TrEMBL record:
It comes from Sulfitobacter pacificus. InterPro entries: CHP02594, Peptidoglycan-bd-like, PGBD-like_sf, PGBDSf. Pfam families: PG_binding_1 (PF01471). This is Peptidoglycan binding-like domain-containing protein. It comes from the Bacteria. Residues 5-57 form the Peptidoglycan binding-like domain. Coiled coil: none annotated.
């Protein structure tokens, strides 16, 4: 990811964290300003500028914790899932206007769509993975089943936190839906964080194996050592940890 330090300095200055010259030099003042900003957002206080920091800095995306608690301890939340969490609640706009963020995803994926009516579950997933600094499937970038068709990523034996879950649509060959595995609910369903779920970014329950469900892990990232429902955190539809599980 290429960083424009002058742009970063200007933004930090707007937020009151940087008071030096806008010179594009990553000196002590710039590093101190980055650390101050990250501290204000609950991020690890270091001067590294990664995709989570950049999204929080320029888009106001709410950063989420780097780890989440499971029955066996805590596990790291993949960067692309952390980015996806920041867009919870983003909706399509009814009528002739379109959500500018969705249009930005189409542009970054080099896709021709200029509206938010085109089904965008795959666009959202691929945009988050691209924003995390990973490669994306070279074609079928807007297709929910595109990863299957291209053999993209690592096929997993079961669900894992952050895995891409793809499902077919009954009676509609070649059509499907894709979402990120964000956890599980008390009924044993996958809690999928995805786009175009009720015309918005939301967390919905899905049967782990219905609709020929498959799980894939993005290329460029080491796949998880273990998979399965028991490896997932129990969460609500808002993504918060269940506290009343018997």
């Amino acid at each position: 990811m290429r960083i424009n330090l002058k742009k970063v300095q200007r933004r930090l200055a707007e937020l009151g964290h940087y008071q030096g010259r806008i010179d594009g030099i990553n000196g002590p003042k710039t590093e101190a300003a980055i650390i101050a900003f990250k501290t204000s957002k609950g991020l690890r206080p270091r001067s590294f500028l990664g995709p989570i920091t950049m999204s929080a800095l320029f888009k106001g995306v709410r950063p989420v914790p780097a780890r989440i608690v499971t029955e066996d301890g805590s596990i790291k939340i993949p960067t692309w899932l952390r980015l996806a969490y920041g867009y919870l609640g983003l909706k399509e706009i009814k009528g002739p206007r379109h959500n500018a963020e969705i249009l930005t995803w189409w542009e970054r994926l080099a896709l021709p769509f200029r509206n938010d009516e085109t089904p965008w579950c795959a666009g959202f997933a691929n945009a988050m993975i691209l924003a995390a600094g990973l490669p994306i499937v070279p074609k079928h970038r807007a297709a929910a089943l595109g990863w299957r068709w291209n053999g993209y990523g690592t096929r997993l034996a079961g669900p894992a936190l952050g895995a891409v879950m793809s499902m077919e649509r009954p009676g509609r060959p070649g059509s499907g839906h894709m979402t990120f595995v964000a956890g599980r609910d008390r009924n044993g369903d996958i809690m999928g964080l995805g786009g175009n779920q009720g015309n918005m970014v939301s967390i919905n329950p899905y049967d782990p194996w219905a609709r020929n469900a498959q799980y894939h892990w993005p290329e460029g990232s080491a796949p998880p050592h273990v998979t399965g429902l028991k490896t997932l955190p129990l969460i609500t539809s808002a993504g918060s940890k269940l506290t009343n599980e018997a």
